[in-house]
Automatic annotation (TrEMBL):
SUPFAM superfamilies: Periplasmic binding protein-like I. The keyword Transport applies. Residues 37-46 have a biased composition (Low complexity). Its main location: other. The lineage of its organism: Bacteria, Bacillati, Actinomycetota, Actinomycetes, Pseudonocardiales. This is ABC-type sugar transport system, periplasmic component. PROSITE patterns: PROKAR_LIPOPROTEIN (PS51257), TAT (PS51318). Gene3D superfamilies: 3.40.50.2300. Residues 57-311 form the Periplasmic binding protein domain. Belongs to the bacterial solute-binding protein 2 family. It is found in: Cell envelope.
Amino acid sequence: MIRTNLARRGFLFSAAGIGAGAVLAGCTSNEREPQNQGQAAAAGQGSNAEPGKPVTIGFSAPAADHGWMAAVTINARSMAEQYSDVTLNATEGTNDVNQQIAQVESLINGGVDVLVILPFDGKALTQVGRQAMDQDIPVINVDRVFDTPLAYRTWIGGDNYRMGVNAGNYIAEELKRQNVNNPVIGEVAGIDSLPLTQERSKGFRDALRRHGFRVGPRVAAEFTPESGERQTANLLQGAQTLHALWNHDDDQGVGVVAAIDASGRDDFFMVGGAGSRNMMELIKADSGPMKATVLYSPSMASSAIALARLLGQSKGLGDLAEHEIPSEVTTYSAVVTKQNVDNYMDVGFDS
């Protein structure tokens, strides 16, 4: 995202499809190499896959009430299990702000070494983040950002604006390849009141404008399959001509695809958002309107655990000259197509 308290959605350090865990585990170490010809050596060459100092990581996230959020917790647990030197203390997911605060306080009092927190509400959880930091417990803030950097050591999350940009660029380039003039381009957004939706839509508009195109019929859903189906049906009823459609969210995309199937229309192609395995399978099959999705992957949670481990062991990222973990990591919204879908299946999640 361009950071926002209510943002959601993923992680790839590399647009080439390398798994996030492999990047962090395979390219990091605490070893130092000598300076050479005035150039700073990378902060740690070699591999951090070997066991190091034991680290206890506390993990807190909202309830797994949809596919993306469920994958966040699954990914965090899976990454922790890869390290024999990591103990993960994970709380039960909750959308009750006060309960999440109490859970994080329990983790702090339990003596964890590092905290990984995806807050239900970044503003509401800011104080407990500061409480941990004030007690010298580093906090990895995932996706929904706290109100102040004083509440976290490192933030990792997605880029909502670039989601829109990359979706718009893909659609525009595909329409040009098809020699479509004056195309009608639809948009099924998420919840319009959220900054993340506004950022995605702005990126989409800006990218299409660069190509001389514009957004046509637009509806806003609610990040659920039911709302996606309902709003897409409304859009299709009012748009007799349509060449392309961008849906912001693959969870609601289940309903979007259902509405398209029910309409019987095949006069346009569709691009999704987030990177669910369901949509990747449709892209791979190439038998319907779904041709691409723009990542906002929950594998950011895997990377957050890997980063927490490095912080707990006082290590940096091996391919960077800096000796310390960065204070911010913004993930990249790669475009998944039939040509590269196999490279990204490992970060797909179940809608």
